[in-house]
Amino acid sequence: MVSWRRLPGLFPTVMFLVSIVNICLVFYVKNVVQELKNESPGYVEVHPRSFSQENAVIERLSHLEMYIHNISNSIKKPFHNERVNQKEDDIKLPEKSKGEMHQAEKAKEEDKMEKEKKVVHRKLFPDSHLFKRWGSDLTEDQQTTAQDLFTKYGYNVYLSDQLPLDRSIPDTRYPSCKVKKYPHDLPTLSVILIFMNEAVSIILRAITSVINRTPSHLLKEIVLVDDYSSNEDLKGHLDEQIKTYNAKYPGLLKIVRHQKREGLTQARISGWEASTADVVAILDAHIEVNVGWAEPILSRIKEDRTVIISPVFDNVRFDDFELLEYAVAADGFDWELWCLYEPLPSKWYALKDETAPVRSPSIMGILAAHRVFLGEIGVLDGGMHIYGGENVELGLRVWQCGGQIEVLPCSRVAHLERAHKPYLLDWISVMKRNALRVAEVWMDDYKYMVYFAWNLPFENHGIDYGDVSSRKELRKKLNCKSFDWYIKNIYPNLIPLTTIVGYGTMKNTLNENTCIDQGPVQENTPIMYVCHAYSPQHLFYLSTGEMYIGGLRSRKNAVDRCLIDPGTGDLPFIEQCNEAVKKGLNMHWDFKQGSSVMNKKTKRCLEIVKDNPSSPYRLAMRDCTGQKWNIQHTVKDWGKKGALK
Ligand code: UDP
Ligand code: MN
Question: Which residues surround ligand 1 with Cβ inside 6 Å?
C-alpha cells in the first residue's frame, strides 16, 4: 500500500479505497442497506456511495491480506523450525542417529497434527462478522463468550483482553516522516480519551500507547472522560488502574465522570474543560497512537495556534485487531453532512513534500488544537445529541471564523472501527437533527441543500434541532465569514444545485402506493416500487430540465445520476449526468406538479403501464396519454436568495 502513494496515476484507486474507511458513515450505510435489502428485493444501493462495491473491495482486500499472511507464515515457520531442530540436533544427538530420529520425530509430529486436526469445533455463529476470518480454533464455550462480548461492544473484546497492552503496531508513516526532526522544546500536551461503555483493556491499551509513544517531557496529562458508562468494570476497577498508573507517573491521569449520558460532543467539551496543557488532543478511547504521532502536531501548533489538526487514521480491524493502513486524505462531507474522505489537493502534490500538512475542509472526530484557541472559537457545539454533525460544525466554524484545518501525514493514530455501535440504533434521526443544527447556524441560504439531501420540507419538517441562539451569537461575536465564502474558497468540491424546483418521491396519480425508484444500481433501469421514501426514491427536478434520481450527490467526486429517454424501446434508463451531457443523451424533461413528464427532445412521456391486467404497473417511455405525476415537495426560486451569489 505504501508504494501506491507514490504513484499519482493510481490515485483514483487509492481514493476509492480510502472512501471505504469513512468512519463516520460506514456502519450506518451497512445497516440501512441491510434494512432495505430485506424490505425491497429489487433494490441494491441506498446511499450516494456505492457501498456494495466498497464492501466487495473490503472483502477482496481482506482475502488478499489473509493470503499474504498465510504465505509469510508458511515461509517463516519451516525455516524457524529447521533452525531450532538443527540447534538441538547439534547439541544432543550423535551423528549416526540423526536420520533415524528425524524419521521418528516426524512420524510423532504427524500423528500429533492428525489428532489436532480432528478436534474441529462446531461453528456456533457462522453468520457473525466476528468469526469471518478469526476464531476458527475456539471451543464452543469460547465462541459463546467471544460472541457475547462482540455483541456488547461492537469489537473483539475476547481478543483484546489477551493482547499485550503495549503491543507494537506497524509504523505506517512515510519514510520521509521517519527521518524528520522536530525541536525538543515544544508545547505541552493534554490527551483526552472519551468513552462510554468501552472495554477496559481497550482503554488501558490506549493509555499505554499514549504513555509509550509521546515524549514524556511533553505529555502533561491524560484526561479520561466517562460519559456515564453503566459497565461495572469501568467504575472501581478502572479507578484502581488509574491509581497504579499515577503511582508510576505522578499526576498523569485524571478522570471526569458525567452524572448523566451527555453524548460524545459534551464528553469532548468536558475533557477540554478539565485539561491544562498548551495543546489538547481529543481522541476516542479505542485508539492506539503510533510512533512519533505527537511531535508533528505540537510543532505545527507552535508555528500557528489557529490550526486545528487531524492525524491520519489507520484502522484496527474489529475482529483480529490487525492494523489496516489507510492512505492520507483530506476530510470532507456531503450535503447530508456525513463525513467522507476527499482526494488530496493538487496544491499539496505540487509541494513534492509528503510531510507537508494537507489543507482540509473539515475534520473527522479525532483532533488536536491549541487549548486556548479552541476555547476562543467556541470548542464544540454542546447542543449536539449523541453522535454526528459535530465534526462538520467544527469544520465550518474553524474556517469561517479565522482558523484552518490540516491533516498531518506524519501523525498517525490507529482507530478501531466497530462493527456496530452498541449505543445507537437509530442513526438517521440523530444525524438529521444535528445536521439541521449545523445548517441553520453556519450555512446561510445554502442550508436548503441539507433539507434537499435529507428530503425535508423547508417548513413544518417536525424536527426539533434545539436552541441555536447562542451558536448564532457566537458566529456574530467572532465576525465569521459566510458559507458562500467557505464553499468557494475552502470546499469547491461541494456543489450547490441552485435550480432545484421539485424534490422527494414521485408518484403517478393512477397508483399512489408506488414510487419511482432507481432500481438495482447495476441495471441502470428505474422501476416502480412500493414507496419507502429512502434515498433510492429521492428525485430532484431542476428548472433546467434534468431529473436526478437516487439521492443527492452533488460533489465533484460523486456525480449525480440522470433520468434518460433512450429514444428507442420502451424503457427509460439512468446515466451519470456528466456522461449524459458528453454523450448528448435525452436528459431534459418538461414537468410541472400534477402534469406529465415529457422528454424535451423525443416528446415521449414517462408513464406507467400494465403488461397484462393482472401484472403490476411498470415504467415505460411512450407516446403521451396524459398521465399525471406529483413530486413530494416543490420549491420556488430558492437559488436566487441573497446569500447565494
Ligand atoms: N461516546 C461517548 N458518548 C456517547 C457515544 C460515544 O462518550 O454517547 C464515545 C465513544 O466511547 C468513543 C467516541 O465517543 O470513544 C466516539 O464514538 P464512536 O467511536 O462510536 O464513533 P466513530 O469513531 O465510530 O465515529
Ligand atoms: Mn471511534
Answer: 23-24, 194-196, 198, 227, 261, 263-264, 267, 284-286, 365, 386-387, 418, 421, 423
